[in-house]
Amino acid sequence: MKTMSKLMTATAVVAMTAAGAASAKELKYAHFQAADLSSPKHAAALAFEACVEGKTSGSIDVQIFPASQLGGGSEIMEGLQLGTVQMAAIHDGPISAVYKPFSVLAMPYLFDDQAMAWSVMDGEFGDALAEDMLAQTGIRNFGVADNGVRNFTNNVKPVAEPADMEGLKMRVMTAPVWVTLVESLGASATPVPWPELPGALQQGVVDGQENGVTNIVNASLYQHQKYVSLDGHVFSWHAYLMSDAFFQSLNDDEKSAVEQCVEISKTIHRGMTAAQDANATAILSEKGMEVVPVSPEQKAMFRAAAQPAVREYIVGEIGADWPDRLDAAVEAYKAQ
């Protein structure tokens, strides 16, 4: 009888576990970096999965889809709006194509360092941008982590000042503001979706591109690029986005778990990416690239050429309100 009782108990536990798994809320989490712990987005995603499933006792089943498995940026943004993708860590370009005010963050040569950039994005400015995005798109932005300080690379010649950009064919993200940035410096710009970038470089469709150290290494772009110029033109972002319809379907404890675990993931993501940016010269030299330093005087030349043109474009697209708010946030940080 005791044996039978134990068997019945074990069967009941298995049945309850199976029932719990069947009723768990599925959270499809998309990102585009490789499924490798050296990839900041994937390391952060795995931390989020463990954190959420632990805090909710498995009532949320996090399923991670790395390396653009669910599609490119446009497809993921559409999926978030339709609810076919519940969550994503996605970069600036595709976000700006759906929610235009996000393009204000493409303003070049604006932030001095990560401390300034994080403070602005974690403060009133970042909160206001997220609230407006939710209202306009139905996509909830929990916050941002680093997509890396963007630098120019190419396979033709060293670039140390704007005049060196003349004649280069540069890949940019699929949002018009990036075309304006590159063309203001004298190069021609070709929008190419992220999954297609390595092939475009290998085949010579474009001469170069602009990205942070993490993405250059993660996608092995260094295999097709000889020169990298450390101009640091834009602090690029990955936003932690969720379908608001999915978020509202969660109970209060599950919502709290998601919010807490995003904060943990964001911190991991920022730290890994910022460390790679800080060691850009060593990392990229080791990969065989020729690192071209850009002096403060040369960076000022880039700023003078690019910032007015990009600002004019952004104001033409979204008005002056968001650019003015961003300028004010930067000035408030400097005044501390």
From TrEMBL:
Pfam families of this UniProt entry? DctP
Location(s) in or outside the cell: Periplasm
Q: What Gene Ontology terms describe where this protein resides (cellular component)?
A: outer membrane-bounded periplasmic space
| Keyword Protease listed | no
Q: Which InterPro entries match?
A: DctP_fam (IPR018389), TRAP_DctP (IPR004682), TRAP_DctP_sf (IPR038404)
Q: Where is the signal peptide?
A: 1-24
* Listed name of the protein: C4-dicarboxylate-binding periplasmic protein
Upper classification of the organism: Bacteria, Pseudomonadati, Pseudomonadota, Alphaproteobacteria, Rhodobacterales
Question: What gene name is given for the protein in this entry?
Answer: dctP_1
